[in-house]
Amino acid sequence: MKILLALDSSVHSERALEFITRVRWPAGSRVIVVSVLQPLIGAGAGPFEAAVIPEGLIEEQQRQARVDVAAAEARLRDAGFPTESRIETGDPRDTLVQVARDERADILVVGSHGRTAASPATS
Q1: Which of 12, 39, 54, 119 lies 20 to 30 angstroms, CA to CA, from 26?
Q2: Is 122 within the bounds of a domain?
Q3: Per-residue pLDDT tens over the stretch 39-90
Q4: What total number of domains does the chain contain?
Q5: What percent of the chain has pLDDT over 90?
Q6: CB 93 within 8 A of CB 28
Q7: CATH code of the domain covering residue 86
Q8: Quick one: average pLDDT of 3-7?
Q9: Which residues form the domain of 95?
């Protein structure tokens, strides 16, 4: 089975990773860890002027994605899975679906977006 794990730096991705390591998958299953970096868009000085995104910010985003993906791969390998990884750029919703199609993944595992229909209680 080919499992595609969508990963970011959230606690929700951590739970998705834990899910994969706890489930009993068919023999020979492997995991593709994918992190999708959404392009940074900023407002410029005028309505039709693009903002300049500091290069250091983009590099930090890429560095963090590499760290997250490498840590997930290490945990998955420790759990007995062969792994590979990809870091993509684009809208995560579209990019993950396209990677799943390209890789012919059997399942796409993603964490929750962290929002619920219920509002937190306030005192």
Answers
A1: 12
A2: no
A3: 766 555 556 566 666 778 888 889 999 999 999 999 999 999 999 999 999 9
A4: 1
A5: 67
A6: no
A7: 3.40.50.620
A8: 96
A9: 2-40+53-109
Please spell the DSSP secondary structure of the chain, one letter per residue.
Answer: -EEEEE--SSHHHHHHHHHHHHS-PPTT-EEEEEEEEPPP--B-SSTT-BPPPPHHHHHHHHHHHHHHHHHHHHHHHHTT--EEEEEEES-HHHHHHHHHHHHT-SEEE----S--SSPPP--
Q: Provide the pLDDT for residue 70.
A: 97
Q: Is residue 119 one of the residues assigned to a domain?
A: no
Give every CB contact of residue 5 below 8 A, 6+ residues apart in sequence.
16, 17, 20, 31, 32, 33, 34, 72, 76, 109, 110
Q: Is the dihedral of CA 12, 90, 71, 24 positive or negative?
A: positive
Answer yes or no: is 116 within a domain.
no
Identify the pLDDT of residue 38: 86
Rounded-to-integer distance, Cα 22 and Cα 52, Å = 44
